[in-house]
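Recall that a protein's primary structure is simply its ordered list of amino acids. Everything else, from secondary elements to tertiary packing, is in principle encoded there. The following example makes that idea concrete.
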Amino acid sequence: MKRKLLSFIAVLLIGGLIWYFFIKPYDYLVSFTAKANPGTINQTIKLWNSSLNLKGSIDQENLQNLMQTIHFKDSVHTYIWNITPLTDSTSSVKIYIKDVQNSLKNKASLHFGTTDFERRTEKMVLDFNKKLNEHLKNFRVTIQGEEAFQATYCAYIPLKGNQFGKAKSMMQNYVYLSNTLVENNITLNGRPIIEVVHWNQQNDSISYNFCYPIIKTDSLPEISDISYKEIKGTKALKAIYNGNYITSDRAWYSLQDYAKKNKINITANPIEVFHNNPSSGMNELTWKTEIFMPIANE
C-alpha cells in the first residue's frame, strides 16, 4: 500500500514537472484591475506598443484577447493579454508572458530569486500601467442614454483610415471643406460631423464621411471632391466625450458596453458632432463631442 502511494505521488510529481516545464504556455503571469473598459485598454495597449523603441507586433483575436510580440536585443517575449470586464468602469487584466528562446531557463530560475526576465517584465508592465493611468486622466465619457439624432443635410468628403488617424484627417480637411463651401456661397448650418459608415473592429479601420451641415438649395454647385447628402435622423444612444478628438472612440466602446448591458440592439456606425476647434488652445478636457450610436431597427 505504501509503495503504491509513493508511486502515485511520484507520478503526480513527474506529471507536474512535465506540465510546468514543457506544457505550461507561459513563464510569468501578471494580474491587475484597471479603471477602464476593455475597449479603452485594448486601444491603449496598441498605442503603448507603437511607442516602444522596440520591434514588435500585435495580433488581435478579439477586443478582449491580444497577443503582443516584443523583440529585445537578446530575446523575444510574447505577452498574451486577457481583458475581462468587471463593472461598467473596471476590468480585470491578465498578461501571460513567455520568453520564447529562454522559457525553460526562466521557469527553472524563477524559484531562486528575482531574475532579469522578471525585472524586465515588471518594468514593462509598470510602464504600460503608467501610460494607461495618464491616458485615463485626459478624457471623460458621460453616457446620457437614448436620444434622437436629428436629420441634417451636409456637404462631405468620404475618407478611410484607422481610428487613431481620424482626427488628423479631419483637421487636414476642415479648412479646405469650410473655406470651399463659403467661397461657393453655400450657407453653413451647424457643427462639423463625422459619420462612420463602416467600422472594422478587428483591425481598427473605419470608412467615414467628414461632413459640414449646410442649408440645402436647388442650386448647389458641383465640386469635384465634395458631395452632398442627408444624414437621416435616428434613435440612438448618446454619450458626451470630453478630451482630445484623437481618442473620441473611447466613447464608442462605452456605448457598446452600455448597449450590451441594457440589451439594446445597436448598429456600430457612430456619429460624432464636434463642438470645439482643437487649434483654440483650450484644455482638452473642455473639448466636447456628442457621440451617437444608432439603435437598430427592430
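The longest strand covers residues 139-149. The longest helix spans residues 2-23.
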